[in-house]
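Changelog note: in this version the structure field was regenerated for every chain. One regenerated record is shown below for reference.
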Amino acid sequence: MKRVLILGAGTAGTMTANKLRTLLDASFDITIVDNDDTHYYQPGFLFLPFGTYEPADVMKPKREFIPRGVTYVNGAIAELDADAETVRLEDGTTLEYDYLIIATGTHPSPDETPGLSTSEYGKTVHDFYTFEGAMALRDALAEFDGGRLVINLIEMPIKCPVAPLEFAFLAEAHFTDRGIRDKVDIVYVTPMSSAFTKPVAAKHLGDMFEHRGIELEPDFYLERVDADERKVVSYDEREVDYDLLVTVPINMGADFVAKAGLGDELNHVKVDHFTFQTPDHPNIFAVGDAAALPTSKAGSVAHFAMETFIPNFVDMVNGRPMTHRFDGHANCYIETGHDKAMLIDFNYDTQPLPGKYPLPGVGPFSLLKETEVNHWGKMMFKWMYWHLLLPGKDIPVPAHMTMAGKDRSEA
């Protein structure tokens, strides 16, 4: 019996379990480990603060998505010994493996930033990258009748890198709908040189902040948060005051990754960017947000990557060479408020370009353009996530990025 151990039952881990169980025969024992019995639809956290979604829309039991023939173990991971090929849980249980797939994701870590994790967290300082954070922010926005709202992106990479932009746009629409937009100053504070860092995207979208009256504070490398004085301070001693701070904390991978010597400086697993295999342990892979890849940490990446990872993994465990290569494909809807959204589509080598997706000249989705159709595409994705993506079913869009439908003259 060959033992396949999956660490993490989030998006990537659950998809992996579902797909592998249908492709590997009974000689493979598959086990998946997670310490939280609730599966969260994390893209939905963005909508909780504005009342678009309710808690029931973003949470379901994890066991509901684990297929028959896969053993589910509820437990926290304490230690990985890559040489001994064992994983020890905090309750003392030791799990042995022949092949290991790390899918423990990445998580916000407020403690990494001086002054961020104080008694003001959840009061005047909030995030929307956790369920609890999004719900607390929902209450704070309901009571916010005016003042200075600061949205602060601290450092990349983060889960869903366009989400801070989306929050800024949705907040602007939210206050407009409430009739208090003139009483709220919105400031977007980022270490990037602009809100949209890719040249073509910046060309098409660079004036969106100006049109919405959102102030941009670029090249701001956060040194600390002064929660008592309600200000964020950069390393070059710039200060931005706030009445309500919505922060995007530094995202970190799992602690056991660092202890095992498999991670980068943020505890994301160092892997081959095309096969997801770790360099020093051929039987260890990392998928989803847990992997250190030069592309977005987004659900679409986990989905597209499966089309490369799964056939490669099946070939490898059956003694065949891995011949498939992931191209870094990602696409992201960007909510812009008032039932409109944009769509970007890119990979390791090609930046977002204008055009139509997925059908050339037809769409129905428009790239780098605000449309209602794009908004409804994002809204429909929740159903697809629960019913198609997690169960490992096919979604009729190409896994590898194609230039069909894109304006090549701007490449």
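Spot check on this record: The chain is about 25% helix and 25% strand. The first strand starts at residue 2 and ends at 7.
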